[in-house]
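Standup notes
- DV: blocked on the single-chain target, sequence here:
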Amino acid sequence: MTSQELAAIEDEEVLNKMLDNAADFEERRMIRAALRDLLKKKREKREQDRGSRQQDLRQQGLSKGGTTGVNISTGRASMNQQPSINKSTVQSSPSPSAPFSRTAGSPAVASAQKCPVAGAPNTKNVKQMLLDWCRAKTEPYEGVDIRNFSSSWKDGIAFCALVHRFFPDAFEYSILNPTKPRENFQLAFSTAERLAGCPTLLDADDLVRMTEPDWKCVYTYIQEFYRCLVEKGLVKTKKRT
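- DV (later): unblocked, structure below
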């Protein structure tokens, strides 16, 4: 197919399936470019619609001769801008499936070090292979640059992109906000549990407390997510001989 024909496709799932089945390097490159353009167009359309709604609200307020429109606009702007999270006011509820062991007065980082990691003679090779797989699956997604199992996942966008790659109809990726990591973590984990049967091994409240996630915890969760995808036939593995 030509780049023009690929650009005419507006279904992410169709492009994802084409990318999985493509064997030619040039063809894969064209499909990835089409996916990136499609996600960009969806994001721009969403932002345009949001701007139009805000303008309508301001005009409605001005037409009434009051300051309602200005107040609404200011309120919406403050909601969209969340550069930081007040750690002193964050409250979390215990999660029986979370790998973090929390006690009163104990820092979250210390408890995160207890995350289990499956041991194997070739753990290093498996870890790199899994990292390469994550990078390949999320390559078309803007705002995602997976280089490790720690800082690359701290805003939750990488988790969402990986889950969205296999379940593109589950949520709208283009509207996600990297300044709202807790919402991103919760969305990714709940979707993965509901559609892939992946247990929620990570806790969103613990993750947002950390400067960056513990790589052992992220690695363990991605391993489990991969295993669930294999069981559902969404990921094909090479048979050992």
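- Follow-up: DSSP finds ten helices and no strands in the chain.
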